[in-house]
Design a protein that fits this description.
By secondary structure, the protein is α+β, with helices and mostly antiparallel strands. The protein is built from eight helices and four strands; from the N terminus they run ααααααβαβββα. One of its GO terms (cellular component) is membrane.
């Protein structure tokens, strides 16, 4: 299974179906944890990953292996879902499906993911101010922030919220001024 940065049209319906099933059975949190656990397991166990994606082994063998390895660790709904992916030859889409499922969980809980790139390390107070500002602007009940440092920004910050970019960096202001003077 490969992690893909492009979410395919195939993965979205699977994630939505699993999410609806999880909601209907009050298992969203449990299945969310299961998907995280499986993602880590598949990522850290290259032999398991190769086994699951290998055309050499039959689906029944793969499903039995999943049951044997994980039946005492994850919910039966999650086991059945992985079996479905194996039956439909969609196990290679697992990471995308898990990612889309987690996005649906966050969206339902009005949690917003934002990536903040700064020129220097922000203090805890500054990080809180940025989170509060984003929550106020977007109406999110909670904002999960990921901070990165990039000294090439010189000063300020760049915020990524989904496909939206808020660029308040000094380097971009310098480029705008330079372009306005056609330098």
């Amino acid at each position: 299974m490969k992690k893909s940065t492009v979410v395919s049209k195939i993965s979205q319906p699977y994630a939505e179906a699993l999410f609806e099933l999880a909601q209907a059975n009050s298992l969203v949190e449990s299945i969310s944890q299961d998907l995280n656990f499986l993602s880590n397991s598949f990522e850290n166990d290259t032999q398991l990953n190769q086994f699951l994606t290998s055309p050499t082994f039959q689906g029944i063998e793969k499903k039995e292996a999943i049951k044997k390895l994980f039946s005492d660790k994850i919910h039966p709904f999650t086991i059945n879902f992985i079996s479905l992916l194996l039956d439909k030859n969609r196990i290679s889409n697992f990471y995308e499906i898990a990612e889309k499922f987690q996005e649906l969980v966050l969206k339902t809980n009005k949690v917003l993911l934002a990536k903040v790139i700064t020129a220097v390390e922000f203090s805890t107070e500054q990080k809180k101010m940025v989170g509060d500002m984003i929550a106020k602007q977007t109406g999110a009940s909670k904002v999960d922030l990921e901070f990165q440092i990039n000294s090439r920004l010189i000063g300020g910050f760049v915020i990524y919220i989904g496909s939206q970019v808020i660029d308040a960096s000094l380097i971009s202001q310098i480029f705008r001024i330079r372009n306005s003077f056609n330098i």
